[in-house]
Amino acid sequence: MTSLQTRIETIQQRIATAAQKANRDPASVQLVAVSKRQPAEAIRAAYDCGLRDFGENYVQELTAKAEALRDLENLRWHLIGHLQTNKAKYVVKVAQYVHTLDNPRVIDELSRRAEQAGGQLNVSIEVNIGDEAQKSGCLPQEAEALVAHVARAPNLRLMGLMTVGQYVSDSEAARPTFASLRRLRDRIAPGCGLSMGMSGDFEVAIEEGSTCVRVGSAIFGERS
Ligand SMILES: *Cc1c(COP(=O)(O)O)cnc(C)c1O
Question: Whose CA is nearest to atom 11 of ligand 1?
Answer without folding.
Answer: 214
